[in-house]
Amino acid sequence: MAKNLVIVESPAKAKTIEGYLGQDFIVKSSFGHVRDLPKNNHAIDIENGFRPTYIISDDKKRVVDELKKLAAQSQTIWLATDDDREGEAISWHLHEALQLDNKDVKRIVFREITKSAILKAIQQPRTIDYDLVNSQQARRILDRLVGFEISPVLWKKIKGGLSAGRVQSVAVRIIVEREREIEKFVPVSSFKIGALFDVEKGKTLYAEASQKVVDFVAAQDFLEKCMGANYFIHNLEVKPAKKSPAAPFTTSTLQQEASRKLSFSVAQTMTVAQKLYEAGKITYMRTDSTSLSQEAIGKAADTITKNYGEKYVQTRQYKTKSESAQEAHEAIRPTDFNTQVASQDRNEQRLYELIWKRAIASQMADAQLERTIATIKIDPVGYKRQTGQDPQMPFLVARGEVIKFDGFLKVYIESTDDEEDEDTKGMLPPLQIGQLLHLNQLTATESFTRHAPRYTEASLVKQLEEMGIGRPSTYAPIISTIQKRGYVVKEDRPGKERTYQILVLKNDVIQQKKASENVGAEKAKLFPTDMACLVNDFLVEYFAQIMDFSFTADVEKEFDAIAQGKQDWSKMIANFYKGFHQHVEESAGIERQQIARERVLGDDPVSGVPIKVIIGRFGAYVQIGEVSDDNPKPPRASLQKGQKFETIQLPEALQLFKLPRNAGNFEGKEMVVGISKFGPYVRHDGKYYSLTKEDDPYTLDESRAISLIEERRKADAAKLIKSFAENTEVQVLNGRYGPYIKVGKQNIKIPKDKKPEELTLEECLALAEEKGKTETTAAPKAKTVKPTAKTSTTKKTKSTTKETKAKKDAASAKPTNKKPKS
DNA sequence: CAGTGAGCGAGCTTCCGCTTGACTT
Questions:
Q1: Which residues make beta-bridge pairs with A332?
Q2: Residue whose CA lies closest to nucleotide B2 C1'
Q3: Which terminus of chain A faces fewer neighbouring Cβ atoms within 10 Å, N or C?
Q4: A532 and A646 Cβ atoms separated by less than 8 Å
Q5: In degrees rounded to 5, what are phi and psi of residue A107?
């Protein structure tokens, strides 16, 4: 029997470490926390110094039993949980749950899973740091008090099942406030002056005025002054520049890049990363640290030398940006840089490549660039001759960029969220000061200011991290909680067409054009529900302290003081609770009716009765008139996607009552057009047919409704390979991914050795039954995730040369916080 | 999948952070 029992948090880690230690060591995992506050309301004894009661979590009883048994048989127990606040608490809870009072217990810590780090840690054991444990208890108790005292107020005053908490309520607030900011936003138009010059041999030069002109008249004026003007190079400036690689991934930056580059949801990124971690391909994926072990840096340098040559190596240690970071782990990196293919699974491999490239690039040389700025003077000779006036014209500026040494760009280019149109940055043609330029055309293009972007899952995580709210292990759960509670929905929204004007000066003639662009289209963005706005306003009013964006940062300072032994945890909590609980009581005392959940929109033009919008159990709806004995069921209609309680106006509200409506008859049965939460539909004979994007449910006529039904039937018939007269529930169909059998609502893939045309009814049923059996034992499938995208502004007629995606990314790659190796 | 919204009242919901599987659908 082993003399030493080592306990870590993660089983994958246990496996690795066991390999580093000798036969005398057995390494086991606690699977995270083993004890927690019970779910009831008596977990904390408020009268007696907030003394907590802990119980062993149900799903940890077996783990604790096993560890207890092993501990009894061991001489020394090494508590090797993570080197942070939660890890220290886990060690203490293990100490308590395993009843280790009379045992030889040693607490060890390490921040990288390397043999040398583990062996060193064994040489330097310490005892449990009770100050640090107390700071965790304070954190835990504060969160419980906040969550379990405010949530019931929401149940009573607003709706059952709602929740509030230090983290989630602020996350919702961020989304609500952004949405209101967007609603208030009024785009301002201005005109961008762009000039295209023909330089020698088919080469062109594009330049822009550094300031936009305010309106159409000013744009016209500008172009008129340029009629018959001369253009020449006023100044040329060539400057060297450099770009540095980004730090290796933390959880948050991995989630952001996987969202941008692979269109993964935050949860999907974590599931895939977990798989890679369990397979030993990457280091731990829940980390806030950007630092790498010296050993890893050395190995990365070896790989870079081997693959790209020594001059591409530039090792560095990155300093973590975030103040709240606890850095118990390394940054996310491959465990072996020589492994290029880590998995057969496509998504695992794609995420692995991202991690590999980012980690390798972080140890590579800066890219060396050369930036050229050409200033072009406009001499309005034509205008001077015509009018005798000499207007001052602004300079035009052309920018070019050439990569002299690619360095880390050879491997990895970080992408960014903002998509501000960057200037086209390629190489400029050869130019000389004083050189006269031949104008091809000068344009003034109208553009509009844009509102701040709506949050994606990943950009919300970024925002939370910057505010120090939430931890790497909770980013994905936060996103899912605020959606589960009905505060936030992740949705696509179509954009709107908007026209804009272009003025073109070519061959001394000014032409005026109109073009249109689609603006405001959203993909996989987070939208607040009406309930979120209601709850948020309530919380902001009555719990301003908790809802303050710096609340977490403020209490973190106090937790730090507790960890340093400078502050008593129960006093800190008592101090907080005094004010907090008073607010709970105040808010519990208010009348339900005082919380605004109704708004009058105006009077119905037909009947003259008031129409109001009400926030109900399933979201907001519009109602004509009041409920009374004469009018027990006033007309009601739900708001549609994109409509909000706060902003809906009377005309839109009246529209809602026009659906569902009769759309004529077909095959002797009525057709009804309506809108459900899945979009507009035609219902006929109990079946639903979706409208296309081009169809308008309010104006759709009988013939179009019939053709929708017929089109669908035709498409279904084209898919049909085989059907059976004896059992109409069973069909053999051709799907997007090949032929399959449909039995009722269940779809079954056809094995390769069977020909779909020759399947008999019996075979189909047998396959269905077989699938029914295996389904129950098979692993749950990863959900398919829709591509995440950003606010898109696609210009239809604009044809300025766009740089390649890679270059655009490169141009906007942010400098990173780096610290020279000490 | 495709629509809901009364009122009564019992009994329930809820936090954040640390870890993975074992469960259905």
A1: A249
A2: A676
A3: C
A4: no
A5: -105, 125
Q: What separation in angstroms does the CA of A643 have from each of A158, A493, A531?
A: 21, 11, 13
Q: How far apart are CA A403 and CA A368, in angstroms?
A: 6
A326: the nucleotide nearest its CA (via C1') is B17
Q: How far apart are CA A199 and CA A435, in angstroms?
A: 10
Q: How far is the CA of A60 from the C1' of B12 (A)?
A: 25
| A591-630 residues near strand B (Cβ < 7 Å) | 615-621, 627
Catalytic residue among A277, A284, A383, A621: A284
A624 Cβ contact list (under 8 Å, min separation 6): A604, A607, A609, A611, A634, A635, A636, A657
Query: Side chain identity at A803, as an amino acid letter?
Result: E
Residue labelled with tokens 């519009």: A622
A559 touches strand B (CB under 7 A): no
pLDDT tens digits, A725-782: 888 778 888 876 677 888 876 777 777 777 788 888 887 777 777 666 554 433 333 3
- Tell me if A697 sits within 8 A of A659, measured CB to CB: yes
CA dihedral for A73, A78, A81, A87, sign (positive or negative): positive
> To which H or E segment does residue A448 belong?
strand A436-448
Res. A490: pLDDT tops 50: yes
- Whether the beta carbon of A474 falls within 7 A of nucleic chain B: the reply is yes
Which nucleotides in chain B have some atom under 7 angstroms from a protein Cβ? Answer: 1-6, 11-25
Gap between the Cα atoms of A601 and A647, Å rounded: 10
Q: Given pLDDT bands bounded at 50, 70 and 90, which one contains residue A1?
A: low
Q: How far is the CA of A283 from the C1' of B20 (A)?
A: 17
Q: Does A784 have pLDDT greater than 70?
A: no
Quick one: which residue's CA is nearest to B16's C1'? A143
pLDDT of residue A596: 73
pLDDT above 60 for A805:
no
**Mean pLDDT value across chain A:** 89
The DSSP annotation for A151-174 comes to: HHHHHHHT-TT----TTHHHHHHH
User: Closest nucleotide to residue A145 (Cα to C1')?
Assistant: B15
The structure's pTM equals 0.88
Is A318 known to be catalytic?
A: no
Give Dmax (Cα) for chain A.
103
Listed in sequence order, the residues at least 6 apart from A374 whose beta carbon sits closer than 8 Å to its beta carbon are: A205, A207, A233, A235, A236, A237, A397, A398, A399, A400, A428, A431
C-alpha triplet A441, A447, A448: angle, nearest 5°: 175
Of A292, A238, A241, the closest CA to residue A113 belongs to: A292
Question: For tokens 């990314």, what's the residue?
Answer: A809
In which residue are the tokens 């004010």 written?
A: A579
Q: Which nucleotide is nearest to A278 (CA to C1')?
A: B20
Positions 89-108 in A, CB within 7 angstroms of strand B: 90
Query: Mean per-residue pLDDT for A167-191?
Result: 98
